[in-house]
Structure formats: C-alpha cells, structure tokens
Amino acid sequence: MQAYQQQAEIVNTEKVTGDIYRFTVKAPDIAADSKPGQFVMVRAGEGLDPLLRRPFSIHQVAEGGLVQILIKVIGKGTQAIASLKLGQNMDVLGPLGRGFVHNTMQEHYLVGGGIGVAPLLFLARQLLKKNESSAIKVLLGARTKAEISTLADDFANMGLGVQTSTEDGSLGKQGLVTDLMAPLYSKNPVMVYACGPYPMLRAVAGVSRDRGWACQVSLETIMACGLGACLGCAVLRADMNGYVHVCKDGPVFDADDVAWL
Amino acid sequence: MAVEQPDMKISIGSLRLRNPVMTASGTFGYGEEYGSLVNLHRLGAIIVKGISLLPRQGTPPPRIAETACGMLNAIGLENVGLESFLSEKLPFLQGINTPLIVNILGDTVQDYQQLAARLDEEEKVAALEVNISCPNVKQGGVAFGTDPGMAHAVTKGVRQHFSRPVIVKLSPNVTDITGIARAAEEAGADAVSLINTLLGMAIDIKSCQPKLANIFGGLSGPAIKPIGLRMVWQVAECVSIPIIGIGGITTTEDAIEYILAGACAVQVGTTNFINPRATEEIIQGIGAFLVENKMASIQDLIGRARQV
C-alpha cells in the first residue's frame, strides 16, 4: 500500500463548534489516493511531548489536492494540532488503512455519531456518483445541536435526506441515533456504514443484524504507527481467537468480523 | 573540489554494514510496512519483528499508552511465527539490498536453537538478534535476560546452530547489565544490542484502572535515552565485542551520543512511528557530522567520549 508523509500547508481552518475544528490542507499525493473510510496520522506539534501522531478519518478530499480532517480537541495532542494556524504546515502521513466497501447494495444508510460523522461526508460524495440521492439516507446523532448542525447541513446541501437525533432534544429527535434506524424499512438490500463511539457502533451493529442489513463499522483505537508495524491497535476477532489490527485490517470492518464486548 | 565521502562502514563479526543505522525490532514490522516511506536500500540493516517458532496472538488491548516523551507497550510478542515469516515475509525482504537481521524469541533454549537452525538455512538472514527478555517457561518464567547463567545458555544454544553473526539483545530490567553482557560474550555472541524497553506502567485516573490490559508494559521513546546511553557506557567498559546502542534515538545527535559512548552502531525504534524517515535522516546526519568535524571514518567517533 502506498502511503505518503507530506508537509501539508494549511489552507483553511474553520471552527465547527466549541471543540471541533475543520482543517483543510494541501496534500496532493494523499488526496489523489484517498478512499472514503481511510485515515491519516498527524504529527502533534514539533516537540517530543506529546510524542505520538494522532489518527483522523479523511473527512473530504477536494480539487487541487486538498484534504480535510475534523479535529475534536480531547487532549494535549489534539490541542496541539488544532492550534496550528493558516499557512503553517501540518505533518500528515497517509492515506492509511482500508476504507468502506460499496457498490452492490441498493439502499445505503450512513449512520454517524458525534465526531464519527467525519468519514461519512467523503463516503456520501462517492456514493452519489453511482446512486440516486433517494437511495442514500443519512442518520446523525450527537449529544446536542451544536455538535452536529453544521455537518448535517453539509449533507443536506448535497441533496441528501438527513435525519438527526440529539440526547438533549435540541435538534431532531430526542434520543440515540439507533432510534432513527428503527422506523426504516426497505424492500431492497441495505448496507449500513457506521462511524462513532464504540457503544453506538455496538448498538448499530446489533440493530443491523436484527434487521438483516449488512453493516460496516469504522473503529477507533489508540495507535502508534498507523502502518501495521507496532501492533498496538489490536481488536478481538468475532471468533474470539486472535486479533485484527485497526490500522491495517481496518479501520473499517464488517460488523460481523469483530467481537462486540 | 568534491567533498570526500566519510567511511560509514562498520562490522559486526563477519557482517559488513554500509552504515551504522538499523531499525529496531518491533518498530518496523517486516520492512514492507515502511516500503513506500523509506528507501529500504539505504539502511544499514533491517531488523524485523521478533519471530517465534509458532505464531503468537499477543496480549489483549489496550496494548499501548502514551507517556511523557515516550510510550508503553505490551504487545505480548504477537508475530506470524517462523513458517509464515519464511513463506510470506521473507520473499519481499529478499528483494531488498540491505542486510536482514531476524530477531528471535522463545520459551525454552530448545525453541531458540530450532529457530537458529532453520534460519541458518536462509542465506538472506545475515545475522540473528536474540531477544532474551522473554520468560523461560522451564525456569519458572524468569526472563532469560535477567540471569547470567540462562543468558549464557540461550546464547550458546543459538551460537551452536547459526553460522553467521549472533547479536544478543539485552534487557535493562536487571541490577547489573554488565554481568549479562559478559555472559553473552563468553557464550560466543558476536555483539550485544541494548537496551530493550524498561518495565513501566500508567494508570487512568478517570477509570481508576491501569491503562494497559497487561498492567505493565515496556517504556520506549526519547524518555529512556539517558538510561540506554549510561548502560552502553557501562557495557563498553567490560566487553570487547561490538555494541549496538538502542533507546530513545530520535535525532542524529542522539545517535552520535551513543556512538561516542562506545556503540559501533545504533537502532532507531519508536521514532519510526512518529517520523518514518528518521533512519534515513540520521544516516545522512552522521555523514554530515563526520564531514563537518573532518573525520574520515565513523571509526574515529566510536567510543571517543571514553578516551581520556
């Protein structure tokens, strides 16, 4: 697999909400090879503390070799990255891992939770190239409106039907994103593409299994290299016999291939 | 006038390396993982992930935790096993014009002997690096590398079954690393490499649980460099075989410190995760340092800090 280490100039920064930022960088090699669901590893500042790169889903790619990532500030590593300024370089390594598989299904349900929405916009754009917008449904969940409203608009602006849920009821249906899945019905085969926190993915995988829908999940773990070398990002296989590695075998897995603990 | 290129070649037993920079086992996969990011043909040597006779699944996650200027890992020696290594990983490495050093690990002296004997048949395997930080299951799980007698036995076992250079990788989790180094030398090791990771731990104060499922893990990264450097210095006092310095090497300056302390070569480890190009940058950096200081050969640098 071809990966690139690029010093990518930051050409746009946008504060999406309180602690979520959207960075656009110029990384032509990475942009050219990226597929939805793949990720990049970003150096967290130039010093030795924090030491490790941080993984981010590729949020979008655009003309001119541009790559977008969504950054939620959760610690000193993400803080160091989010505080980079327009015109500075971001040390980006990618594209890495295996992304979403698509094409055979007739209905596509994109299910995102919080910052997990990140790779689904890229996926939606690619699905739209070969599918009617009516065959794609977007279900987004978050704790509160601020986390999700800008991103929901991005999907809506692409002409997609978007349903939202928030835990506090400030946008869409009050509850969890799986509540939005319950009323869905399709005569046709369905593929669910899910990204978000682990408990959400476990619930989405469960609903999908009950409904007979195929389901792919994008998993997140702590990882050091992103290249399949350190073997730090192990996840138990569905048969409980050994491990798969999120960075190389994933981050996107068939929900039936991993153990849900 | 063309600048004279300094001589970067070093020897470990009968093995000649074009430069003294290697990749540390466990941080570089089986080479292929870095194939698109590093010019593998420029490295001094490639040391691959430790191989056992049979595949190992490794420990449950979480397996890694970040610490100040370092990281902890408890991978549990997960690896594909000898047969898969030979059939799936070796063919790629055959095509790389760089010496291949295979790191081996086992539960018993017999395991190490069998690995050595089989790998001796593969000409591409230029040397073995013996990981003696593993528990000896026949001796109540005490690590081979913490007891001079056991370190001697495992080194001798490998020596008898492998015709090319044998490097013994030392654990720093001992009271006196020089005793282990001497035992390896006496048993016929061509070189020692040090240090392996330091045993440590971290606790998540939100969950009140250790961050690693294994509780303890090996600390690596820039945080451990002063300890590695001190141990290289100590071992250089008491053995006459070559020493390969490992531990927190991030920059050219770090590598040069190890060489000044008495190492003839270095391994770059955790830094590969953060800067995949580090090995190449350090090779270039050492060359530039020699030129800048008007030294014709890397030999002029080895152990120089020790000279009174």
Please list the strands of the largest sheet of chain A in the order they lie side by side: 4-3-7-1-2-6-5
CATH class of the largest domain in chain A: Alpha Beta
Based on secondary structure, the structural category of chain B is: alpha/beta
The number of distinct β-strands of chain B equals: 18
Q: Could you tell me the radius of gyration of chain B in angstroms? A: 18 Å
Structural class of chain A: alpha/beta
Which segments of chain A are poorly predicted (pLDDT under 50) over 5 or more consecutive residues? Answer: none
The CA-CA distance between the termini of chain A, in Å, is 31 Å
Annotated CATH topology of chain B: TIM Barrel
CATH architecture assignment of the largest domain in chain A? 3-Layer(aba) Sandwich
Order of helices and strands of chain A: EEHEEEEHEEHEHEEHEHEEEE
Greatest interface by residues involved = A-B, 32 and 35 residues
The CATH homologous superfamily of chain B: Aldolase class I
Write a structural description.
The complex is a heterodimer of chains A (261) and B (308). Chain A is of the alpha/beta class. Chain A has 2 domains: 4-96, Translation factors (Elongation Factor Tu (Ef-tu), domain 3, Beta Barrel), CATH 2.40.30.10; 107-218, Rossmann fold, CATH 3.40.50.80. Chain A is 22% helix and 34% strand. Chain A has 6 helices and 16 strands. Chain A has helices at residues 28-33, 76-82, 118-130, 145-157, 177-181, 198-211; strands spanning 4-17, 20-26, 39-42, 54-57, 60-62, 66-72, 89-96, 107-113, 136-142, 161-166, 173-174, 190-195, 214-218, 234-236, 243-245, 252-254. In chain A, strands 4-3-7-1-2-6-5 form a 7-stranded antiparallel beta sheet. In chain A, strands 11-10-9-8-12-13-16 form a 7-stranded mixed beta sheet, with helices on both faces. Chain A has a two-stranded antiparallel sheet with strand order 14-15. Chain A is globular, with a radius of gyration of 18 Å. Chain A starts with a strand and ends in a 7-residue tail after the last strand. The model of chain A has no long low-confidence stretch (mean pLDDT 95). With 308 residues, chain B is α/β, with parallel strands linked by helices. Chain B has one domain: Alpha-Beta Barrel (TIM Barrel), CATH 3.20.20.70. Chain B has 8 helices and 18 strands. Chain B has helices at residues 81-94, 109-120, 148-161, 177-186, 225-238, 252-261, 271-274, 278-292; strands at 10-12, 15-17, 21-23, 45-51, 64-67, 70-73, 100-104, 125-131, 135-136, 142-143, 166-169, 191-194, 198-200, 203-204, 209-210, 217-220, 243-246, 265-268. In chain B, the strands form 5 sheets. Chain B has an 8-stranded parallel beta barrel, surrounded by 7 helices. In chain B, a hairpin with a 2-residue loop joins strand 1 (10-12) and strand 2. Chain B is globular and about 55 Å long. The mean pLDDT of chain B is 96. The chains are: A alpha/beta (261), B alpha/beta (308). Chains A and B meet through strand 14 of A and strand 5, strand 6 and helix 7 of B.
